[in-house]
Amino acid sequence: MTTSKAVVQHLPFLRRYARALTGNQASGDAYVAATLESLIASQKLLESQPNQRVALYKLFTKIWNSVAVNGQAEAGAEPQLPPEYHLTRITPRPRQAFLLVALEGFSEDDAAKILDCDLPTLRGLVEESGRELAAEIATDVLIIEDETFIAMDIEALVESLGHRVIGVARTHAEAIALARKTQPGLILADIQLADGSSGLDAVNELLGSFEVPVIFITAYPERFLTGQRPEPAFLIAKPFQLAVVSAVASQALFFGRKAHQRERHATA
Questions:
Q1: Which CATH number fits domain 137-267: 3.20.20.190, 3.40.50.2300, 3.40.50.2000, 1.10.10.10?
Q2: What sign for the dihedral angle of Cα 125, 141, 172, 153?
Q3: Which pLDDT value is given to residue 54?
Q4: DSSP 8-state secondary structure symbol assigned to residue 137
Q5: What is the Cα–Cα distance from 57 to 63, expressed in whole angstroms?
Q6: What are the residues whose beta carbons fall under 8 Å from the beta carbon of 265, sequence distance 6 or more?
Q7: Residue 92 pLDDT > 80, yes or no?
Q8: Which phi-psi region, left, alpha or beta, contains residue 85 (left: φ > 0; alpha: ψ -120 to 50)?
Q9: Phi-psi region of 162 (alpha: psi -120 to 50; beta: other; left: phi over 0)
Q10: Which residues contact 262 (CB under 8 A, 6 or more apart)?
Q11: Does domain 3-133 have CATH number 3.20.20.70?
Q12: Contact between residue 82 and residue 34 where contact means Cβ atoms under 8 Å apart
């Protein structure tokens, strides 16, 4: 497969992974753009690789790790991000390892190749991320899902993680009413609901009233990974693995908590 075809095939999911790492669309896309610029400079970089998806994610990781926590390129690190792509913080490797396996579905061997580490190290990173998951602050969760059995699976999962489900909404109207009454700390929302209403529309309406991390669930993630704004920062494909929901919920709460900490410091 040519480089361009490989990029077209894998780009939507690389962008999803990048946003899960950074917590927002603009930052994730900045790193993806830098990865594409590196590919343009070396157009045959992927063509010679036996697994082009692994090679693409490995290049992304190399660029990701070429920027220090303070936003300055590390000495001797190549390739380097241009100034407009610098971030103020890098997501720890345990979260990268966990998301590669749980969200992106890579095997342990492929995830180890992407992170340029051996298999025991990769497993240690995933275990470390698991300890981070256990340390997340419990919160109230609203589920927007019209399929009963899927809603039950999600409810059981979030409760097993120590959270409390405050309600399950099956329509746009139910979601608005429940959220305004309870103000959840996390929302898990299907995008297309059975009555024709939109979970995406409901969430966008709610976000005009208060801030809350949101994870969208859809059978067609590529339809919402188009580069047009706004895009969901956290997106899970149906059918989903429960470990994926666990990983993405952790990331959403992590960034939501950091945002609230920054707000408190700013007003102190």
A1: 3.40.50.2300
A2: positive
A3: 93
A4: P
A5: 10
A6: none
A7: no
A8: alpha
A9: left
A10: none
A11: no
A12: yes
pLDDT-based confidence at residue 3 (cuts at 50, 70, 90): low
Count of CA atoms in the C-beta half-sphere (13 A) of 211: 9
Name the band, by pLDDT with cuts 50, 70 and 90, for residue 256: low
User: How is residue 242 written in tokens?
Assistant: 């429960």
How far, in Å, are 67, 74, 76 from residue 262 at the CA level?
22, 26, 32
Helix (H) or strand (E) holding 14: helix 3-22
Residues 104 and 95: beta-carbon distance below 8 Å: no
Q: Which residues contact 84 (CB under 8 A, 6 or more apart)?
A: 30
